[in-house]
Amino acid sequence: MEALVFLIVLLFLAFSAKNNKFIRQFFHPSPEEIGNTGEKHVSNWLAGLDSESYLVINDMVIPDTHEGSGTTQIDHVVLSPYGIFVVETKNYAGWIFGEEKATNWCQVLQREKHRFQNPYRQNFKHITCLSDLTKLPWNKFISIVAFVGDCEIKTRDELPRSLVTCKRELLNYIYSFKEIRLRNESLVHIKTLLTQDIANQRQLLPNDHVSHVHAVMAQKTLMVELAGGKPPKCPYCGSTMVLRTARKGVSAGHKFWGCNRFPRCCGIIDGEKR
Q: In 3D, which of 207, 210, 220 has the Cα closest to residue 263?
């Protein structure tokens, strides 16, 4: 009898979690925890590469030359004679809809739609910063997007092979590049540049990165407060959003609300609908 009551309570909580924000936050991990879990999965996948030819660097933080200040975080970088593979990881559930050149993609989860930044656009910024840092041309870099978690890519046929959803797809895609793109002397130089004092880099740069993000958030939140407005809540994780302005593309100059947990959470609301 006690087991039956316990089972009924669990079922009730599971059902309520779909409709109760407090229960959802109590029983489900934060977007940051979800992101970290996804990165660990992909890190384990990349550990299956031949260590003689491929060097994997996880959670790399480098100067943000794209924005002109601060830092940017890259989930995974793989150095090899066949190019530098830059991997952006997404740990999502539900249905995923997107196009390679679209500004935003869409996640459909429990009949709710959530927009998030196109991961290929995120990787464009990462590769730009790596290219500036290493002084290498763009044709030395290969962009990869890895989705983990209980998700289904509904527009899979419209996306390139560089979008992968399992270890086999990721390793096969990397191994498909057989043409030598980096000579040994260049590869040694790049390895030294990106891995020198890596222990200090992991201790210092992430803190600089967080400080930079917090400073930008504080400035934009202050602007909202001075204007008498109240920042909305992120539709994906419930965190406070900050007002941003698109810098490039067809939406340049367009204001939008972005989640303050970006890049861990990519919730977006049209700023001109407020």
A: 210
